[in-house]
Inverse folding.
C-alpha cells in the first residue's frame, strides 16, 4: 500500500500530522485540543481509535497541547526521547506507564513494514527532532521548527520522495513586524525558525531529482503568506542555480485551519 500522509494543522497555533500505510497509522505531535484533533481527523475519515501512537518532536505547546488528552482518551503510546519526556511530563498530565515509550534521537523503530527514524534538529527546546518514514523504497521526511539546516540535517532529509519542511517567515516582514526585538532575534537565530530564503537554500542543496514534492510548513500568520512562501522559496532555489521544469518538482501548501488532502508518497 505504501505511505500516505495528511498535515492536519501546521503553524504556531498547533501542529498535527498523520502518516499511515496499510498496517500502521501514526500521529506526529498533538498541538491542538483533543476535540479539535478529532474534528480534523474526521475530515480525513480517520478516527482516534485508528491511531497506533504519537511521535513527539519537542515540548512546545503548539506541538503537545492535546497530547495527554489524546493518549488518555485512546490509550495511545507516546514516543519521545529522554530529554523531551522530562520536558513534557508535567504538562501532559498522567500518562499510563505502558504508554511512555523512549525513542532516543537517531534511533529507528519498526511499526510493521513502516520504519521510523528520528534525527536531531536545531531549535530552542530540550532535544528537538525531525522524523523520517520508510516503507520499502519510499521515504517521507518531516522537519519543522529548526533554526537552520545543518549538514547532518541535510543528510537526514536528502533523497526523500516527499518532504515536509518549515518555511516559517519572510525575513523582512518579521523585521518590520509587531513582535518585540527579543522575539524576533529568537526566531531569526540558529535555534529559532527557518525562513523562506533558508528553506529555498536548503532545498537547492539537497534535491537530486528524487524529491517530487515539498510541503511548506509552520508558516507564520503574521510574517508570511502561502503565495509569498512559495514564490520566495522557489526564487531562492533559482538564485542558487536550482531550476525545475513543470511537473518535475512541486511546492505544496499546508494550513493552520484545515488538513491537506491525503497524499501518497509514491504516485507512480
Amino acid at each position: 500500500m505504501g505511505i500516505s500522509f495528511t498535515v492536519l494543522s501546521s503553524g504556531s497555533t498547533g501542529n498535527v500530522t498523520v502518516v499511515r500505510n496499510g498496517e500502521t497509522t501514526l500521529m506526529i505531535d498533538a498541538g491542538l485540543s483533543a476535540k479539535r484533533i478529532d474534528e480534523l481527523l474526521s475530515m480525513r475519515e480517520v478516527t482516534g481509535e485508528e491511531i497506533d501512537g504519537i511521535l513527539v518532536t519537542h515540548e512546545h505547546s503548539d506541538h503537545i497541547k492535546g497530547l495527554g488528552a489524546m493518549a488518555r482518551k485512546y490509550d495511545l503510546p507516546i514516543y519521545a526521547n529522554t530529554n523531551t519526556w522530562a520536558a513534557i511530563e508535567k504538562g501532559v498530565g498522567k500518562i499510563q506507564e505502558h504508554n511512555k515509550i523512549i525513542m532516543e534521537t537517531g534511533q529507528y523503530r519498526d511499526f510493521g513494514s513502516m520504519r521510523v527514524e528520528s534525527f536531531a534538529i536545531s531549535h530552542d527546546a530540550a532535544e528537538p527532532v525531525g522524523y523520517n518514514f520508510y516503507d520499502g523504497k519510499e521515504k517521507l521526511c518531516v522537519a519543522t521548527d529548526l533554526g537552520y539546516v545543518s549538514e547532518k540535517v541535510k543528510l537526514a532529509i536528502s533523497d526523500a520522495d516527499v518532504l515536509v519542511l518549515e518555511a516559517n517567515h519572510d525575513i523582512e516582514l518579521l523585521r518590520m513586524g509587531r513582535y518585540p526585538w527579543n522575539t524576533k532575534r529568537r526566531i531569526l537565530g540558529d535555534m529559532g525558525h527557518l525562513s523562506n530564503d533558508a528553506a529555498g537554500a536548503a532545498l537547492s542543496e539537497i534535491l537530486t531529482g528524487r524529491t517530487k514534492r515539498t510541503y511548506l510548513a509552520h508558516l507564520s500568520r503574521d510574517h508570511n503568506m502561502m503565495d509569498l512562501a512559495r514564490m520566495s522559496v522557489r526564487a531562492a532555489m533559482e538564485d542558487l542555480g536550482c531550476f525545475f521544469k513543470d511537473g518535475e518538482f512541486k511546492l505544496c501548501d499546508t494550513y493552520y485551519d484545515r488538513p491537506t488532502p491525503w497524499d501518497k508518497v509514491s504516485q507512480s
